[in-house]
Design a protein that fits this description.
Length: 228
C-alpha cells in the first residue's frame, strides 16, 4: 500500500507498506472508525470470537487516541494471521517531529546513545536503511487502559512491545519517528519481517511515476533524476 503523509507544516513523506497494514483515516468520526475496524476484522477473520474482535478494536482505538495527542501524521492498523492461524494485531504510527539535528550525520549515533542511557532495558542500536542511517530501539512497556473500556471500575494494564525507528529528515529540521507496537509479543519473530518491510518502504521522495521536477531543487534525488 502506498501513501503520502504530511503534517501541518512538516515536509512530505511517502510510505509503501506491506499487506495487512491498513491506513486509518485520522479525520474520521470515532464511531465510524471503530465500526469500520470491526467490519475489517469480520471480513479478514470471520471465525474469530466476538470478545477477541472487540478487544482488537478497543486496543486499536485506545492506541490511536494516544498517538493523536502526540501529533501523529500516519497510522496503520496491522492485522495479520500468524503461522498458527491466530489473528494478531499491531499499530504502525509515523510522527514528524521538529528537532535540532546537530552536526550533519551525527544524529543517529548520538540519539542511540541517549536512548540507551534513558532506557537501560531496551535494545538500542544504529541501522542502515535505503533512506539513510537511523537509530532503532526495541523495548517492552506497560500500558494502562481505563476500566470504562471494559466496563469495570478499575483500570487494567497490558504489556506491549514497541520498535521505534528515528531518522533525521535530509533537508528540513524534522525527525521521522516510525513506531510499531503490539500486544502479541509471543509472535514477535513473525512481526519482524513485516516491520522491516514497512521501515524500508519509508521514502523522502515521491514514487518514480511522479516527476522530481515538481519538487523544490533541494528535494531532488539527483541519482534517481540522472538514471531514471
Amino acid at each position: 500500500m502506498a501513501a503520502e503523509t504530511t503534517g501541518a507544516a512538516a515536509p512530505p513523506l511517502w510510505l509503501d507498506l506491506p499487506a495487512g497494514f491498513t491506513a486509518i483515516d485520522l479525520d474520521e468520526d470515532l464511531g465510524d472508525r471503530m465500526a469500520r475496524a470491526a467490519e475489517q476484522i469480520d471480513a479478514l477473520f470471520p471465525d474469530t470470537g466476538a470478545e477477541q474482535k472487540l478487544a482488537a478494536v478497543i486496543a486499536s482505538e485506545t492506541a490511536l487516541q494516544a498517538q493523536l495527542r502526540e501529533g501523529v501524521v500516519h497510522v496503520s492498523s496491522c492485522l495479520v494471521r500468524a503461522e498458527d492461524g491466530e489473528p494478531i494485531h499491531g499499530m504502525f504510527a509515523v510522527f514528524l517531529r521538529p528537532q535540532d539535528l546537530g552536526e550533519p550525520g551525527s544524529y543517529p549515533s548520538r540519539v542511540a546513545a541517549e536512548l540507551a542511557e534513558a532506557w537501560p532495558d531496551a535494545d538500542v542500536g544504529v541501522v542502515d536503511l535505503p533512506l539513510g542511517r537511523a537509530a532503532l530501539a526495541a523495548r517492552e512497556l506497560t500500558v494502562p487502559t481505563p476500566g470504562a473500556v471494559w466496563g469495570v471500575p478499575e483500570p487494567t494494564v497490558s504489556t506491549v512491545r514497541q520498535l521505534e525507528l528515528l531518522i533525521p529528515h535530509p533537508w528540513s529540521p524534522y525527525v521521522v519517528a516510525a513506531v510499531f507496537t503490539t500486544e502479541d509479543i509471543d509472535h514477535w519473530d513473525e512481526w519482524l519481517p513485516l516491520i522491516a518491510t514497512a521501515y524500508r518502504g519509508i521514502s523522502f521522495h515521491p514514487p518514480r511515476d511522479e516527476s522530481s521536477d515538481e519538487l523544490p531543487p533541494e528535494q531532488w534525488d539527483k541519482i534517481r533524476k540522472a538514471f531514471g
